[in-house]
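Need the bound structure for 6-O-methyl-beta-D-galactopyranose, inputs here:
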Amino acid sequence: MKKKSEKKSKFPDPFEEARLDKGFEKIDDQNDPVTMVLRHQDVREYAKNWKTFQSGAKPGRIVVPSEEHIRDIRQIPFEVDPPEHGEYRALIEDWFRRPFNPEYQLELSNQINDAVDFLLEKNTVEIVSDFSLPVQSKALTLLLNVPIEEANTWIDWGVHVFRSEDNPLDGDKANILYDYLDKQIDKAIEHPSDNLYSVLLASEFKNRKLTKEEVKGVMILTFAGGRDTVINTLNNSITYFAEHPEALERIRNEPRLINQATEELVRYFSPLTHMGRVVTEDSYVCKHAVKADSRISLCWASANRDASVFEKPDEVIIDRKKNPHVGFGFGPHKCLGEHHARQILKTVIKTLASKVKSIDILDAEENIEEWGDIKRKVGFERIEVNFNKRD
Ligand code: EMZ
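Answer from helper R.:
Posting the output first, comments after.
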């Protein structure tokens, strides 16, 4: 008998058993073990404890899989611990709040309107490359305040700046980004303007200007951190609305639900599985000994399915009331791009609700992360769909 195929928009939780049983899971990453922390409460506690669980280790090491071998530039403020972390963050926090401005929101709305119209005009579309990748890239021109044409270059880089189809840590690909950023920074030095490069170059840190290296560190983070994460969230949300047209209908009738739906989709899909920390002294996580200089990871994806915090955690409840998810991280390092990312997702939901009647999934290829025995669906490599207009 043919196995009944699972819904495409269903994302199973591979951490449940270990989370209930012991609260952690040990995995290997390039012969450097990682203890994944799985419970919501523990994840939040360790995320705040930056003294014992640091981010400012060797550049690339807190990312799992570790990027140590393809990157020696420190991403800022992501790979810096307090108090410097807060000082760097203060320089850019206002800039990353620009998505709250009405003009920013209007421009984003126009971009997304065009992107959805394009889907509706075509018969069959492939969501990853025909929609999510260009939407993320064009929206990024707003966050950087650069001309929209720049997005064409970034679209050519594909979904991840450090990963290619057959290599999860592609150094050659990373060099394309680094070279590009060197050029953009030099250009901004020659012709200062009102884009993020120039703003960074003009800002002061500890009574001196930021160095080119520091500016590059912020820019790498801006390009890398919000890339596959945003793209996966858009892909996954579209599969959700394809399989739950009633949700789209409900949002159309009750637009105030957009905010709750946005948070819920981020919780359910948890675009970033986890983020590492390096242990600074022998200690314990979940009553389990961890050695100094080993790594733990804060598993946002597992915390977001913790049944002690979320009722029916494996269901998408678009009007979920209490939703303390950690989809954007938690503690001092909480995602700087969260306002931008939220604004993109909200605008996509709003635009779909106003223009789309239904979406038919024709074919899809899943993207599965593997950590030893643990397999986690994070999104799709490819999704072919038909969009049907509202009358
Ligand atoms: C790092 C990370 C930041 C890392 C919030 O996450 O995102 C990953 O996709 C990148 O590979 O370098 O920026």
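Comments: The first strand starts at residue 24 and ends at 29. Residues 259 and 346 are 7 Å apart (CA to CA).
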